Structure formats: structure tokens, C-alpha cells
Amino acid sequence: MRKLFLLPLVAIALLAVACGEAVVPAGDTSPEPDAAQAVAAAQSNESAARDSDSEPAQAPAPEVKAPSSAAVAPADTGTPGGVFRRLWSDPPTLDPHLTSDTTSAAIVVEVFSGLITIDLDLKLAPDIAESWDISPDGTVYTFYIRPNAKFHDGRPVTAEDFVYSINRAASPLTASPTADTYIGDIVGVRDVLAGRSDRVSGIKAIDDKTLQITIDAPKAYFLAKLTYPTAFVVDKNQVESDPSWTDSPNGTGPFILKEYKVGERIILDRFADYYLEPAKIDQVRMNLAGGQAMAMYENDEIDITGVGLFDLDRLRDPNEPLSKDLRIAPPGFSVSYIGLNPEEPPFDDVKFRRALNFAIDKELIADEVLAGLRVPAYGILPPGFPGFNPELEGLKFNPELARELLAESAYADPDTRPRIVITVPGTGGNIGLDLEVILEMWRQNLGVEVEIQQVEWATYLQDLNRKRFQAFGGLAWQADYPDPQDFLDILFHSESETNHGGYSNPEVDRLLEQARVEIDTGKRIKLYHEAERMIVEDAAWVPLWYTGERHLLLKPYIKGYALTPMTIPKLRHVYIEDN
Questions:
Q1: What's the pLDDT tens digit per position in 314-330?
Q2: Which candidate, 4, 172, 210, 305, has a CA 20 to 30 Å from the CA of 449?
Q3: Domain 334-545: homologous superfamily in CATH
């Protein structure tokens, strides 16, 4: 989902937040991405362990193959019942229209739902809409709502519920940080967001079970965008009558939010009348109180935890009793990075930005500090993701060139150089060994001093969305859906609300806008390749890492738990094997 997710504060202890919005704190020890943009914030390497966890006149979306190890076990056997226990963090929100991180999204996708979903094979699949038609020109979508789809209180879902929900997400009063990104293609949404209209003109109910949506141009990725929580349905009666409605939301997903006590726990109960196959487990319990994840796992307090570098060698030993619980998850579709604001000195000088990139020996850090658990990132799109360009060289370590660029920049003189502060999520703990090494490389290779400021996760997200940072780190963007538009357009178009650094290049905008409506898939990918090359050459970011192989512990009686590279609904497939 948007994929901002928090990366673990001790980078070597990470294993992988965001939904569509993908902001993920960069030191997350989650067994799966992410994603996002973002798994929940980790207060220390032991504080949280979770998984981040996709027609005529219209080009098909790029296909992506699900990793062969996507599911730990098939979910078609086992007796229903039981409880699945995990460690988590307090979500910044449980309102789907406000969700922009993987900590929140991983819960929201289980309690709420939308027209379309992404299945365990990372393919688009019917959700509340059992089918849909697309007009010959690729701009009008007609969705047919399942007759058995209902809210948790038993009320049937209607087309008018979606009309209300899209209008609410677009309303300036809602202040959604994701509406423009995920539903902005619908005709009239941007007029409502801008206050020019009070009603989205491009969505209407034909009858109770038929919904029609009109978009501004044929776009290959539009259906995929509807899998993001911004497009999920909410109950108008509850939302408008109860200001605290997210404390006990009347959702449509496979689980009901039974209880949420901040800093203590979240309990999800199985929704027996779920319109697809109901969940097999009775309950999901999320411990929000923190603790030492490995100790909690060994004491049978939780059923799953990510594994960091400190424990990995021990767990790989066949003589270690827990070695039988060790699982390997496929790499996540995410990239961690340091974001730069090109409107703030010294990052308004492209030579200075490029110098910072060339001064980092990512190969050394990946091998010696991160023990091969991360893959150096020299581009934006992660390996295996549609549109990934293996020929993109990027700004690889070259300290001599870095010093030349610094000398040619407007900020060569350290006496007049502005103070540089990178803001990261955290509450005063370790910033991560990888970031510490990067700061030292900048110091040694360039003589550039950089300070770190830590901010609590929820506040960090607010300030990030408001573009208040000079530079920002501790983040990863996790894919919401398998299309390069989800990274390149959403993160780097000058008018994108999730372009958190404020990067702007008219030629990049032109390429991204052309790719939006390009029908030929091959031509479309070439446009994205060129846009990505320019973004990297402009040093809009300091790309850091792609997720490598991820490790986790999973109790042997837990079956059907899918290890996916994106945040998708999946807990209904989990079951507990009979003894």
C-alpha cells in the first residue's frame, strides 16, 4: 500500500509500511515489506516485528509473477478456529481515506474493502465488485456489486455507498493525503479537492448494485489504484453520526475490529458473513505494548516475528530448536532512501546532491554492515518489479568525482554552507548503523557534516505530507500495485501530493504524463525508463537499499500465512493446523 513504512532503527536488525501510500520507517524488522510506502514504526530493533507485508483502447498493466515462496502453506485445509498472535505498533489512523502508511494499512485492509483487490498471486481480483465492464474508449468503468456483500452490521452494500465514500475521500474536509494520488483520475475528484465543486461528477449509481465511474483518460493502472484504501467503502450513517467511528468501524472486510486500546492491543474478530470465503481463524490479536520480539516468540506469546542479523546465524544452526521455524520470505517491492528538498539549500544545487550520492560506498555497507540482507539501490524501481531497468547504472561510488562536484557546487565552502539536518522517525534511539556509516562517509569523503533529528512516527508522517523537511530518511516506499507508475509518477511528478521532497523537472513531468495514457506497453516502459534515468541523474533522492531475502520465525502450527512483497489482505487465509 502506499508505502511509506518505517525502516528498523537498527538497520542490521531489520527485516522489513505503507500502504499505496507508502511510507515505511526505514528500520522495520517486519517479516515482509511494506512495501508504501511502510510498515509500522519500530522504536528499537526489538520493539516491533510484523509483515508488510497489486481492454479496448487500454493497455494491459505490466504483469508481475508472485514469488514462488509467496505462501508458507496452502490455506485449503485445517479446522476453522483459533487465534493468531503478533507484535505490532499503534496505527496512525484506521480511517481508510486517511491511510498512508503500512502500519495502518495492514489493519485497514482486513477490516475494510473496496471494489477490487490484489490476490496472493499479486493479480487484480474481484472484491466487492464481482465483475466490471470497460467502455471501448477505456474511460468508463461499470462495476457490478455482489448481492451478498454487506457491512459488519448486516446492511447490504450498495452502489450509493461507493458514491458517498469517493466523495468523502475527495472532500477537503476529510483532508485525505492520498485522494489525489489514488482516485484523482476520476472525473471531478480534483475539482472537489480544489474546492471548485462539492460533488464528484465522474461517479454515479445506476441502481443499487451497479456503479459507474468515468476517468479523465484511458489508463492501464486505474483498476489497480482502486485496491488502495482511499477507494474503500465506508458506512455513511456511522461516519456522519459518530466522530469516533474508527474506534469501532462498521467495515466490510473479513475481520471486525472488536477492540483497540492504544499502546496495549488490537483485537480483530472473524466476520462470519463475509461475502467471500470467511476467515478460518476466529481472532487476530496484535500486541501494541512492545517488548523483545524474540523473547516473546520463544515464550509462545506471539506466533510470528521478523529475524534480525544478530539472531540469524544462531537460527540457521540445525542444532538450534527454533531453526525448524525459520522461514525465508521473497524480497519486497520496496526501496529505502534519503529524500532531499531541492527548494532548500544546499539541496537546490544539483551538483551538491550528486556529490552526496557519489560519496556513499553502498556495496561496502551492504556487505560489511548489513551482511547481505540488503541490495544496494542505484535506481528507483526494485528488482523483479514491472519496469525494472537492469541497465540503469546510477550514481555509484566515486569519491574523486564526488569531491569534484562538491568543489564546483555553490556550497563548496564549509564556512558558508547551510546547516544540514536529516529528519528520521524515532524517539531518541539508535538511528541505524547504515545511516551512521553514511554520515561518516560524507564526513570523510567530502568534509560534509550532517545532523540527525528524530521525530515520533505519526508527527513525522504529518510533517512529511506537509513538505516541512530539508531532508528526510528512515523511510522506504513499498509498492501499492505492480505498475511503475506507482513509484515514478506518484513520487516524482511535480504535482503529485506524495512528491514529499518537491522535486520538479518539466521533462520528467512530460514523460510521466505521456506514460499515463500510452497504450503500447513496450513504449510505456521505455518512457518510464527514461524518466527514471533523469530522476537518478538529477539526484532527486539518495536511493539506499532494496530489500533482499527476508527471514522470519513462524510457529509450525500456523499455516496459510502468505509472504508477500506488498501489503494486501491475507489473514483470512491463515489457519491453525490440528495437533
A1: 999 999 999 999 999 98
A2: 4
A3: Dipeptide-binding Protein; Domain 3 (3.10.105.10)
Report how far apart, in Å, the C-alpha atoms of 61 and of each of 18, 49, 306, 565 are: 21, 33, 32, 18
The phi, psi pair for 111, rounded to 5°, reads -100, -35
Residue 319 neighbours by CB distance under 10 Å: 6
Question: Does residue 346 have a cis bond before it (omega within 30 degrees)?
Answer: yes
Residues 6 or more apart whose CB falls under 8 angstroms from that of 457 comprise: 6, 25, 40, 41, 89, 92, 103, 425
Contact 89, 42 (CB under 8 A): yes
Summarize pLDDT for 244-263 with one digit per residue, the tens.
999 999 999 999 999 999 99
Return the pLDDT at 77: 56
Q: What would you measure as the largest C-alpha separation in the chain, in angstroms? A: 69
What's the CA gap between 163 and 75, in Å, rounded? Answer: 34
Q: What is the CA radius of gyration of the chain?
A: 23
pTM (2 d.p.): 0.84
SS3 of 305-338: EECCHHHHHHHHCCCCHHHHHEEEECCCCEEEEE
